[in-house]
Amino acid sequence: MESKFAHIIVFFLLATSFETLLARKECDGPEVIELLKEFECNGKQRWPELIGVPAQYAKGIIEKENTLIADVQIILNGSPVTADFSCNRVRIAVNILDYAVSMPVVG
After folding, report:
1. What is the pLDDT of residues 74-101, one digit of tens each?
2. Which domain covers residue 75, as residue numbers?
3. R_g (Cα) of the chain, nearest Å
4. DSSP state of 19
5. Exposed / middle / buried, residue 58 (Cβ in 10 Å: 0-12, 13-18, 19+)
6. Residue 94 CB contacts under 8 Å (≥ 6 apart), including other chains
7. Across the strands, what pairs with 19?
């Protein structure tokens, strides 16, 4: 029992000593800064207030608040999606009752 506890403590000490992977602007260099600038989109980009609302209502709000959004997709939470980025797309992840379960964001 003591050996397992010691292993757990060592694991947590090692895990906390590693630096987390965060997107940084200044210390990553000019290449990363240019890449981040490439993906700057216009208009509202996040809708935290739409978590828990019906999907069709959320879609209407998104289209009203950012007219640059041309593609609002309603997907079942956990469904596979492409990894590409698009400034004119928002995905709304919904549960089986068709309510938004996470924050819709541009991408």
Report:
1. 999 999 999 899 999 999 999 999 999 9
2. 2-106
3. 20
4. P
5. buried
6. 55, 74, 75, 76, 77, 100, 101
7. none
- Counting Cα atoms < 13 Å in the Cβ hemisphere of 97 gives 6
Residue 86 is part of a domain; what is its CATH number? Answer: 3.30.10.10
Q: Where are the alpha helices (DSSP H) in 1-107?
A: 2-17, 30-38, 55-65
Best CA proximity match to 53, nearest among 104, 105, 107, 1: 104
Burial class (CB in 10 A: 0-12, 13-18, 19+), 97: exposed
Name which of 38, 53, 44 is nearest 84 in CA terms. 38
Alpha-carbon distance 58 to 47, whole Å? 9
pTM attached to this predicted model: 0.63
- For residue 9, the Cα-to-chain-centroid distance in whole angstroms is 32
Quick: pLDDT tens for 39-78.
678 889 999 999 999 999 999 999 999 999 999 999 999 9
Count: domains in the chain: 1
Q: 3-state DSSP call for residue 51?
A: coil
